[in-house]
Specification:
This protein is an alpha+beta fold. It contains 13 helices and 32 strands. The strands form 5 sheets. Strands 8, 9, 10, 11, 12, 14, 15, 16 and 17 form a 9-stranded mixed sheet that branches. A 7-stranded antiparallel sheet has the order 5-4-1-2-3-7-6. Strands 13, 18, 19, 20, 21, 24 and 25 form a 7-stranded antiparallel sheet that branches.
Length: about 575
């Protein structure tokens, strides 16, 4: 039966070039594994179809490939749902039945993995046992969610497979070098996307089902290449959370987070200093992200200031949802198993209320916190989106993201600009929609002479106004100043001044020297937007944009954000 469960997925990817955001890297092809779960939904790994331009699916034993569409993607949980409209795919040669989701497998339980790993075109079946259940790092988006470690051989191309009573095969392609273990002595992050990337490589595998008693108990997604037979599967609680979010909202919103950084309290002197009584356990809150629900103010009480937050730095988090948290940050899972308490939060549905018990200044208090996914100041990933950028006077500005730093190569943690790396790893969002706008390069011209060395610097202010994000930055640049100059204040107190009229005149010749014909057409469309804004004739711009070839508009759709909105 396992042979007919796995579907082979063929994907063409086109990854954006963040150094030259108006271009893409060369296209590449990959294969992965998927399986049917419900109502003609095909479940696979998100990394199998990330940045895809074309997706095909083939049944086991068939020589025909069918076009598939991506219906929903959860990059942080590395899951995706595909659909195939052609009825022949579902009925020939026999009807395809969905697999049922099972429960979390027990330790030492046998599992079987089915998929299409590297080395052949036919399905492969491997077996192993469940070694451990823990919160682990998902390489695809550097998140920390519940995962199952198995001792089956996991090879690239096997991701998205199912686990039967035997372990799932991990499929995939090598993506990034990230550490899998965070030392418990160091601060642990509830919004796990903030955990720094290290140097221990984990290989991504495109995923199929793992079965037990004919039920799926996991989806293979990655392995540890320098260890013998260590693979990882996504457990069914994470899969169910993903599917339920898609069923409720039509798309995946993300995993919930308190938006706090905390540390373990295994030192007895530290516990006494915090006023903890004998028998009390918990973790110390170090930082609270200003835009998170945990930082929202409570109703003023007689003994509290009106600005008191739900959770404050220095609080001890004793319980979440009534579940006691140990001093090492773990909670009871089952029998003698323990798991880091973050898993209680990440599996909550979006918008749920989380009950927290805190120790504050020696007194115990309780709060309800609305749980939502947290936005990050510097995104860990930007899959399936073209990068946003803004060019003025040959100066290229982008919002800082980790994919931009990844362009510095596999060793980007050491080769990328240290200042930008530190911002990406350690800075947290203080205002909603905040971004770090960076001057990445200077396209040389007379209008920007002398500024060629000003690269990879954050733009702090424009004409004296602090920059919130890239869209706000654009508004500040295009707002006329009394003297006709645009002043850019960069970090390190560096200053750039550009004549506005000369900058607009230089844009055409800079584009001719820098970009291909299609990009120039889009660029000129944006230049026209600025002129039309001054004339307040937005409809003319819209007709100009629509008159461009469809391929140009599709390739450079991210540039629409700079065009005036139309009725």
């Amino acid at each position: 039966m396992v042979n007919v469960l796995a579907l082979q997925i063929y994907t063409v990817h086109s990854r954006p070039n963040h150094f030259l955001p108006w271009q893409n890297h060369p296209k590449r092809e990959s294969t992965g594994t998927g399986f049917v779960v419900h109502n003609r939904m095909i479940l696979t790994n998100a990394h199998v179809i990330a940045d895809s331009t074309y997706v095909l699916v083939k049944r086991h034993g068939s020589g025909t490939k069918f076009k598939a569409e991506v219906q929903a993607v959860g990059h942080d949980c590395d899951l995706a749902i595909l659909s195939v409209d052609d009825d022949a795919f579902w009925s020939l040669p026999t009807a395809m039945l969905p697999l049922q989701l099972g429960e979390l497998p027990a330790l030492q339980q046998d599992v079987v993995v089915v998929g299409y790993p590297t080395g052949g075109d036919n399905t492969s079946v491997t077996s192993g046992v469940v070694s451990r259940v823990e919160v682990a790092q998902y390489v695809h988006a550097a998140t920390h969610l519940m995962a199952i470690q198995i001792d089956a051989a996991i090879n690239p191309g096997n991701s998205g497979e199912t686990l039967s009573s035997v372990v799932m095969h991990c499929l995939g392609c090598m993506l990034a070098a990230l550490t899998f273990v965070v030392k418990r002595a160091e601060p642990r992050c509830l919004n796990v996307s903030y955990v720094a990337v290290e140097t221990c490589p984990i290989i991504h595998l495109p995923g199929g089902p793992a079965l037990q008693d004919d039920k799926v108990v996991g989806v293979a997604f990655q392995n540890l290449p320098h260890a013998e037979n260590i693979g990882y599967i996504i457990p069914t609680p994470v899969v169910r959370h993903f599917i339920s979010e898609v069923a409720k909202y039509g798309f995946y919103k993300g995993y919930c987070s308190l938006g706090i950084l905390c540390q373990n309290l295994e030192n007895p002197h530290l516990r006494r200093a915090l006023g903890m009584q004998e028998g009390q356990t918990g973790v110390l809150v170090n930082t609270v992200q200003a835009t998170s629900a945990a930082a929202e103010v409570t109703l003023p009480l007689p003994d509290l200031a009106a600005s008191a937050a739900v959770i404050r730095p220095g609080d001890v988090l004793l319980r979440f949802g009534g579940v006691p948290i140990a001093n090492d940050g773990t909670v009871h899972l089952r029998q003698r198993e323990r798991i880091y308490f973050n898993y209680l939060i990440t599996l909550q549905p979006t918008g749920a209320s989380g009950h927290v018990t805190l120790l504050r200044n020696g007194s115990q208090c309780e709060h309800n916190v609305d749980l939502h996914p947290n936005e990050m100041l510097v995104p860990v990933h930007t899959y399936d989106r073209l990068p946003s950028y803004y060019i003025f006077a040959g100066l290229v500005f982008v919002p800082l993201s980790q994919p931009y730093l990844h362009e510095y190569g596999d060793d980007w943690t050491n080769t990328s600009p240290r200042r930008l790396y530190d911002k990406a790893m350690h800075k947290m969002m203080k205002r909603p929609a905040e971004q770090i706008v960076v001057l990445t390069q200077v396209l040389s011209d007379d209008v920007n002479a002398g500024y060629q060395l000003f690269q990879n610097l954050q733009v702090v202010r424009v004409n004296g106004d602090e920059v919130l994000n890239l869209a706000h930055f654009r508004q500040l640049v295009e707002t006329a100043s009394s003297d006709g100059f645009v002043r850019f204040e960069l970090e390190d107190d560096r200053l750039m001044v550009v004549d506005r009229l000369l900058a607009i005149e230089a844009s055409d010749r800079i584009a001719e020297r820098t970009c291909d014909h299609d990009v120039i057409a889009s660029w000129r469309c944006i230049l026209l937007a600025r002129k039309i804004q001054q004339m307040k004739s937005r409809n003319v711009l819209w007709h100009h944009w629509c008159a461009l070839p469809a391929a140009v508009r599709a390739t450079h759709n991210s540039m629409i954000m700079w065009l005036p909105t139309t009725a």
